[in-house]
Write a structure and sequence with these properties.
Blueprint lengths: L12 H22 L2 H14 L4
Helix pairs in contact: 1-2
């Protein structure tokens, strides 16, 4: 992604990876506990938009 200029080189990738894992795990938790599928879809949509992966 850095080579394709989709990701800023100054971003701390380790921190970013942890944040995305937390977002996905939170979405899964809400999916299971509330039977709310759209929340997990929203998480992935935000990640895709952040990196212009449409």
């Amino acid at each position: 992604m850095i080579e394709n200029h989709q990701l800023d080189e100054s971003i701390n990738l380790k921190k970013k990876r942890r944040i995305h894992c937390a977002m996905i795990e939170g979405g899964i938790l809400l999916l299971v506990s509330r039977q709310n599928t759209p929340v997990l879809h929203d998480v992935f949509e935000v990640i895709k938009q952040q990196y212009h992966l449409d």
